[in-house]
Specification:
With 268 residues, the protein is α/β, with parallel strands linked by helices. The chain is 38% helix and 22% strand. It is built from 10 helices and 12 strands. Strands 1, 2, 3, 4, 6, 7, 8, 9, 11 and 12 form a 10-stranded mixed beta sheet that branches. Helix 2 links the parallel strand 1 and strand 2. The longest helix is centred in the first third of the chain and has 21 residues. It is elongated, with a radius of gyration of 22 Å. The termini are far apart. The N terminus is likely disordered.
Length: 268
C-alpha cells in the first residue's frame, strides 16, 4: 500500500512537471504584445486545456532574446532576426510588418511631410510648425532614451536620416507608450512611432504621410510606403508541443485575421 501511494505521488509530480514544461510563456518587444494577447485568447478558447501566458510588461527585443535563451520564456517577441552568436541557438519566424511613421497631435493642420522636412525637424533646423504648413507653434521633438527599432528603420529607409544627429533639445522618454501619451497630450510634439493599434488608442494622435504616401497597410503592401519594420518571434530550436501548435495557429487564416485587426500586416 505504501509503495502504491509513493508511486502515485511520483506520478502526479511528474505529470505536474510535464504540464509546467508545456506551458508557453511569451514576451519581449512591446510591439507585438497586444497582438499575441489576442492570439493567445483565441487559441485557448479552442484548446482550453492548454496555457499560453503573455507577459504584458514590455522588455524590448534584447529582453525577449535573453529570456528565451535563458529558458525563462518559450517564445520571444522581437523586432529583428537573431544575429551573431544568437543565430546558433535561436530560430526566427517573421510574424508581420508594421508601418513606422512620424506622429503628431491631430490638432496640427499638417498631414504630409517630405523626407527633407522630417530630417530638418528632428535635426533641429525647423523649429516651428509654421515652416512646414502649420500654424505658429514650437516643435517639441520626442525620442527614446535608447534608440529603438522604429528610429533604426527611419535611419535605414530615409537617406537624410541615416547619419542625422537628433536635436539636443529633444525630450527623451523610456518607453514607447510614454512617447504616445506625450503626443496625445502635447499639440506641438512629434515622434517616430509604430503605426499600430497602440497609436490608434490615443485619440489625439495621427501619423502624417511621407512624400504623399500614407503609412497604411495597403501602401506598405504596394511598395509605395517604404518605412516599416518586421516583427517576429524566436524560440530555442524548433518549437515543440504547445508552442509549435500555437505558432501554427498564428499562421492560420484565423490567426492572420486577428493580426490584421491590430493593423499588423501578416507575413506568415
Amino acid at each position: 500500500m505504501y509503495l502504491k501511494v509513493i508511486t502515485m505521488v511520483m506520478f502526479l509530480l511528474s505529470a505536474g512537471a510535464l504540464w509546467a514544461q508545456d506551458k508557453v510563456v511569451v514576451g519581449g518587444s512591446g510591439g507585438l504584445i497586444d497582438e499575441m494577447e489576442d492570439l493567445a485568447k483565441a487559441y485557448m478558447a479552442k484548446y482550453p486545456s492548454e496555457k499560453i501566458e503573455v507577459i504584458q510588461e514590455s522588455m524590448s527585443t534584447s529582453g525577449g532574446l535573453g529570456a528565451v535563451m535563458s529558458g525563462r520564456m518559450t517564445i520571444g517577441l522581437v523586432t529583428r532576426p537573431p544575429k551573431g552568436d544568437e543565430k546558433a541557438k535561436l530560430v526566427y519566424r517573421a510574424v508581420g510588418r508594421s508601418p513606422v511613421g512620424v506622429a503628431i497631435h491631430k490638432s496640427l493642420p499638417v498631414n504630409n511631410l517630405s523626407e527633407a522636412q522630417i530630417c530638418n525637424i528632428f535635426g533641429g533646423k525647423t523649429k516651428s510648425w509654421k515652416e512646414v504648413g502649420g500654424e505658429e507653434a514650437k516643435i517639441m521633438v520626442i525620442t527614446r532614451k535608447q534608440e529603438d527599432n522604429n528610429t533604426e528603420v527611419m535611419r535605414e529607409k530615409v537617406s537624410c536620416f541615416k547619419d542625422l544627429k537628433v536635436t539636443a533639445d529633444a525630450v527623451a522618454l523610456s518607453r514607447g507608450s510614454e512617447v504616445l501619451d506625450a503626443l496625445n497630450r502635447r499639440p506641438g510634439a512629434v515622434a517616430i512611432v509604430s503605426v499600430a493599434t497602440s497609436m490608434f488608442e490615443r485619440p489625439d494622435v495621427k501619423a502624417v504621410s511621407i512624400d504623399g504616401n500614407s503609412p497604411s497597410a495597403e501602401a506598405v503592401k504596394s511598395g509605395k510606403y517604404k518605412v516599416y519594420n518586421e516583427r517576429g518571434v524566436v524560440t530555442v530550436g524548433e518549437p515543440k508541443g504547445t508552442a509549435k501548435k500555437f505558432l501554427e495557429f498564428v499562421a492560420t487564416a484565423e490567426g492572420q485575421k486577428i493580426l490584421a485587426k491590430r493593423s499588423m500586416i501578416p507575413v506568415m
